[in-house]
Amino acid sequence: MILTVTPNPSLDRTYEIPALDRGAVLRATADRIDPGGKGVNVSRAVAAAGHRTLAVMPLGGPAGAALAGLLGAEGIEVAGVPVTGHTRSNISAVEPDGTLTKINATGPELTAAEAEALLAAVGARSGGADWVACCGSLPRGLPPEWYAELVARAHRAGARIALDTSGPSLTAALRERPDVVKPNAEELAQAVGRPLATVGDAVKAAEELRAAGARAVLASLGADGQLLVDGAGAHFAGAPVATVRSNVGAGDASLAGFLVAGGTGVRALAAAVAYGAAAVQLPGSLMPAPADLVPAAVTTTDDVPLARPLTEPVNRALSSGSREDMRRP
């Protein structure tokens, strides 16, 4: 059973549009509304694969009720923690070439009592979980150390932890030694405080996260593929994608595939790539089912192409704050 934790879930409405023309009245060619939030998407992909999942999250207001209803319709068990604020709603606009413009609402501010209730809900249920996937940004009211406390409690309950977050929340949690962390290229660059231009740069950054506490790093490099860096070394995998329809939730689908396949080793890496490649070819944040996967298209190797330039290098200026956080005891 895979338990997911989404501290800041949402309702996600996606519009497919011919082009994003600022200031114009745009007419969508298609639209859909889906449950949103990184952990929520992991649960949806796990459920679509026929595995049991439990989604823990704060829920408030009509949007929270609608979110729980949508998840229930997908056969997902929800452990909602009532909060006084309202669950947020997000909007995505997707152009024909796959370009995504997303507007994320802030979400509710949780009180100290609500933050503790969310931790308690995870602790009470994580003992029966094979994996606890902690995913997404933290809402207002939760300090960066909140994920670190969650990882510590889940470990004490005997569960393995997959962590998909970024910035101070990631660096603070590393000291509790999550079993796998899943940054994308930008988040990886932010964590080490420097640009990434090649696959080799990404490998070095992943090794630094391991040195800081992560037992394994599953790094999404966009169109270039994915890296797994763990105690056995570095492995690289990729798959061709004919058409990108929407990349909303593709990283979440990848994490679900990784965990469904056991969460360790090359086999799990290949599953992560297969799930991610399938997800980007689906509309909105629709999660892939087994019929959407093409495992034969995935290639894996331990001969990592270190010199290969990243298609989308992370060259923006990065502060040293995250790097300094990683050095703290």
TrEMBL record:
Report residue spans for region: Disordered: 304-329
The alphabetized list of GO BP terms reads: carbohydrate catabolic process; small molecule metabolic process
* Pfam families per the UniProt record, alphabetical: PfkB
Q: In its keyword annotation, does this UniProt entry include Endoplasmic reticulum?
A: no
Q: What class of enzyme is it?
A: transferase
Q: What InterPro entries does this protein's entry cite? A: 1-PFruKinase, PfkB_dom, Ribokinase-like, Tagatose/fructose_Pkinase
Question: Which terms in the Gene Ontology molecular function aspect does this entry carry?
Answer: 1-phosphofructokinase activity; ATP binding
Q: Which GO terms of the cellular component aspect does the record hold?
A: cytosol
Q: What is its EC number?
A: 2.7.1.56
This protein's UniProt keywords: ATP-binding, Kinase, Nucleotide-binding, Transferase
What CDD domains does the record point to?
A: FruK_PfkB_like
Q: Which residues form the Carbohydrate kinase PfkB domain?
A: 23-290
Q: PANTHER family given for it?
A: 1-PHOSPHOFRUCTOKINASE, 1-PHOSPHOFRUCTOKINASE-RELATED
- Which family is this protein grouped under? Belongs to the carbohydrate kinase PfkB family.
Know the name of this protein?
Answer: 1-phosphofructokinase
